[in-house]
Design a protein that fits this description.
elongated; 6-stranded mixed beta sheet; 6-stranded parallel beta sheet; 434 Repressor (Amino-terminal Domain); LacI/GalR-like_sensor (chains A, B); DNA-binding (chains A, B); alpha/beta; 345 residues; homodimer; DNA-binding; Rossmann fold
DNA sequence: TGTCCATAATGTAACGTTTTCAGTTGTCGG
DNA sequence: CCGACAACTGAAAACGTTACATTATGGACA
């Protein structure tokens, strides 16, 4: 019967549905569904027959249909400023690990550090009926909340000012304290800080300042914008205005790279003359010369935490914000000062 | 009537559908659908009324329903080895740009540079009925092709050996030639190459070697594995075995960072004594000291090309592989040699 | 024999959309 | 006043699945 062959080829072409399998194995579609979701009891013989047919037709249950009726998509929306920044990449790695374990997939959208595209990104994701959402470094605060129907809760990976209880954040203040203590411990006394706009940097500075106050010291400060160029610039200011600086805490690794460069150019040895501590422990930290001591953000762990938080939320549980402690990673850019090479003027 | 209130709250809770909008604006669901797809002519007044209601109810057409009936998901699957590597991040940025313009979203999966998880990643994406797929640096060659039902075509961003015509790749050989020409042009004559496993590195070396042969020169070589440590190691070998090397071409920027470090440690000035050219022009290139001259992969452009290729494929058109030319980005690690500081022994 | 129960299977109604087909108007030329 | 045509609208049939309610089929038990 050539018709049968032709028709079966055709049906194979246009993606075979549950009805086809049901028809060919002589059961109802409901039974086929049960076989694939092993929910209720199904006669082993029947199950066998169904599975056989399914195999033959290369049938795969469609997520679309399933999700439509279940009201779930097994998708988790993720909004990231960009993907080229390694710290975000690490977080995504952590998120993926948890989600993969749970059989969920990541729907990715980029916010470009921009409120408008953040908003449209959220809408995009929502249209796909994501079950949950994680947003990293959202610019939208409490004032303009993200769209969120059906009781969907966004998990924010960001510092406190976003106001949501569904939050994973780094204890930036503790990071600043860590940096200060390290420098003080090394015997440095003429400290400086290079900051950047935003809450994170302010928190880092607060911790740093608190420890210095406690030690009865003051510090110089310069302002950058997280870019390498601004680090060069800031270091220039610090060194010119004020002759004697023997340690610099920089609010970001990229800026720290700039600071190192400025020091090189002035012939100041690191760490002998000036010690430098960065922040984030981005991938570049260990590639710089000398290798940069930095305050590490456990980005991957923060990613897994955010994903787990989102899953818990999805299960209807309550959650609490999670705060991660930063960690000092000691490398070559810090060490004891050398008397001889201190900045002389 | 409290019941009404309760029920209306409930329906508001559980996501408003096209029916609700239709009912409240006194038209049929078909008309609402038409308004949102501006397919057929709709009375401007009616359209207005519908849009008003939709706005009031915060109605968003559900992709699920739409895709179910259309047999499309407006999803494009993307498989990447990892996201922490900036080059991939840039590509993703390019892909997102094109896709966003087309209203499609990215379903992300990680292959972890591992054939098995690459395969399961593909299955994951397929279950979500992605319309197309892009896979970056796939390990699966022709031998074990990716699963691909319904005439779905994977676009590969990878060198030629994957065999598929749906491909975006970099002309690695041209990159090698570029590096060689730059060094020769600077008057360097004692060249070396640091390679890594895999086709890419081999192609880069082939181009490099071809230009040297043409100039009647030979070169030293050492082998690494793209890691910074292996760069340090390789540079060590080159400098010890062979006293006189005045230029090193390194098949990857991370390794180049290692080479720079080894040179620093030996007190060899870059570029005066030894010039260094990296490959990829990763973000770190411009952060190293000195800033690294590198052969740039136009990663973002390759991403957009891959996305466009995928869209064209999706539209049923035929496509050809696209090859991108690399570009030399000149920075501080190359320059004319200085007689005085050449390696003396 | 009749009742009850467990098991196995089935039928049908959703889910939220788009699309096709079949209207219903209203307008205009003849 | 008729017919043709355009503009607009609505009903209903998909799409692939699950959930709910229901129906057979036996067997155990009183």
């Amino acid at each position: 019967m050539p018709e049968l062959t032709v028709s079966s080829v055709l049906t194979a072409e246009r993606s075979v549905g549950i009805r086809e399998v049901a028809r060919l194995s002589g059961v109802s579609i409901a039974t086929v569904s049960r076989v694939f979701n092993d929910a209720a009891a199904v006669n082993p013989e029947t199950r066998e027959r169904v599975l056989e047919q399914a195999q033959a037709l290369n049938y795969q249950p469609s997520s679309l249909g399933r999700n439509l009726v279940r009201g779930r998509s097994e998708l988790l929306g993720l909004i990231v400023p960009n993907v080229a920044f390694p710290l975000y990449g690490e977080m995504i790695g952590g998120i993926e690990e948890v989600l993969g374990r749970e059989g969920m997939s990541i729907l990715l959208a980029l916010s470009h550090d921009n409120v408008d595209s953040e908003f449209t990104a959220a809408q995009h994701l929502l249209r796909h009926a994501v079950d949950g959402g994680i947003i990293i470094n959202s610019r939208l605060g409490l004032n303009a909340p993200l769209p969120a129907p059906r009781g969907l809760n966004w998990v924010q990976v960001a510092p406190e000012h976003t106001g949501t209880p569904h939050r994973v954040e780094l204890d930036n203040e503790a990071g600043g304290r860590l940096a200060a203590l390290e420098m003080l411990g090394l015997g440095r006394r003429r400290l400086a800080f290079v900051g950047a706009p935003g809450r994170e940097s302010a928190d880092r500075e607060r911790g740093f300042a608190a420890e210095l106050r406690r030690a009865g010291l003051i510090y110089r400060r310069a302002q950058g914008d997280y870019s390498e160029a601004s680090g060069v610039q800031a270091a220039g200011e610090l060194l010119e205005h004020n002759a004697a600086v023997d340690a610099v805490f920089v609010a970001g690794d990229l800026m720290a790279a700039g600071v190192l460069r400025a020091l090189h150019q002035r012939g100041l040895r690191v760490p002998e003359a000036v010690a430098v501590v960065g922040f984030d422990d981005a991938a570049i930290a260990s590639l710089l010369y000398p290798r940069l001591t930095s305050i590490r953000q456990p980005a991957r762990a923060m990613g897994t935490a955010a994903a787990e938080l989102s899953l818990r939320l999805l299960g209807g549980h309550r959650t609490e914000p999670i705060t991660f402690p930063p960690e000092l990673v000691r490398r070559e850019s810090t060490g004891p000062p050398s008397r001889l090479s201190a900045r002389h003027f």
